[in-house]
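Try this one yourself first.
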């Protein structure tokens, strides 16, 4: 019971931090971010994070992603980002039941237990890139993947 409460508090804290971080970012960078709605469409304008010999572009996007999960089990969820494109990259995947997966340039995969109900997730992608990356292209550059490692029995589809 205590462990469930601690996990719930951790998830709520993480969600609040993500929301506050996005608010802070949009307050500090007015006019540079527009989150797409459900699906993968939306608009985006960018400005260099600071001017030097290499231009850097800050970005933040929110997507609805559908994982075609057929069986409950252990899955590896990861990213294979184009490392030469990103100075920093953070991908946060939040499932409806509160499970959260955090991936970065340095932590590119995680093992997680997923159920059939975990098919739909909200994916937050934020970071700094060396190119102006559109919302339509970002998921191609991030290369989000999943792979089932083990399943819990057969399910009837």
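Now uncover the answer:
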């Amino acid at each position: 019971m205590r462990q469930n409460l601690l996990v719930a508090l951790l998830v709520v804290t993480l969600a609040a931090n993500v929301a506050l971080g996005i608010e802070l970012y949009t307050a500090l960078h007015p006019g540079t971010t527009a989150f797409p709605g459900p699906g993968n469409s939306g608009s985006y304008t960018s400005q260099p994070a600071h001017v030097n010999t290499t231009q850097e572009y800050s970005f933040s996007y929110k997507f609805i992603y559908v994982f075609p999960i057929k069986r409950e089990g252990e899955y590896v969820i990861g990213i294979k980002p184009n490392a030469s494109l990103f100075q920093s990259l953070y991908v946060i995947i939040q499932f409806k039941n509160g499970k959260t997966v955090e991936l970065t340039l340095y932590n590119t995969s995680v093992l997680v237990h997923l159920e059939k109900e975990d098919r739909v997730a909200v994916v937050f992608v934020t970071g700094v890139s060396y190119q102006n990356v559109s919302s339509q292209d970002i998921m191609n550059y991030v290369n989000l993947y999943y792979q089932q490692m083990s399943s819990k029995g057969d399910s009837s589809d």
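Discussion: Residues 48 and 57 are 5 Å apart (CA to CA). The helical segments are 2-28, 135-142.
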